[in-house]
Amino acid sequence: MISENAKIGNNVTIHPLALVEDDVEIGDGTTIGPFCIVRRGAKIGSNCSFTAYCEIRDDVIIGNNTKMGSRCTISANAVIGDNCLIKYSFVLTDTPNLEENDVKQVKGVGHGSMIGANVTLMPNTSIGNNCVIGACSQVRDDVPDNEIWFGNPAKPYKKK
Fold first, then answer.
1. Domains in the chain, number
2. pLDDT tens digit sequence for 92-151
């Protein structure tokens, strides 16, 4: 189902079993796969691809040419950069800040980063530009630009 209030670009493919809510913007040439949910206010750039079962929550911003494998969950208000490759089952988490009326603490992923399968990005942490995060990692600290991290908890391996 696609909301009448969504702004859909040219040559966009949305699977009939996907859900696109109000005030969503989807750029030209993007593909939304089966059972994907794009929540209210999300903005997705051009030439992006979401395989299946992805959830893009409220007010998320995703840049151009970003690809996600199946079963990715991106928490509300997160930002994902341009030219990212995110393998399946990536979870970008959030947590409420009780001192700020439950405002969610969430950051995102920088441009050109590659995230392996089954990675979790913990609340209020970010992955910089041009980073690589190894499969099955749990990122608990901010990852600086141009670094390779892996493990649980994820630790720096080397600079790119």
1. 1
2. 988 766 666 666 667 899 999 999 999 999 988 999 999 999 999 999 999 999 999 999
| Within-domain flag for 45 | yes
CATH classification of the domain holding 14 = 2.160.10.10
DSSP state of 131: -
Question: Is pTM beyond 0.85 here?
Answer: yes
The angle at the Cα of 52, spanning 84 to 92, to the nearest 5 degrees, equals 50
How many residues belong to the chain?
Answer: 160
- Residue 96 neighbours by CB distance under 10 Å: 12
- Asked whether residue 2 is assigned to any structural domain, the reply reads no
DSSP string, 37-77: EE-TT-EE-TT-EE-SS-EE-TT-EE-TT-EE-TT-EE-TT
Which two structure tokens, joined as six digits, stand for 75? 């928490």
- Domain containing 32 equals 7-159
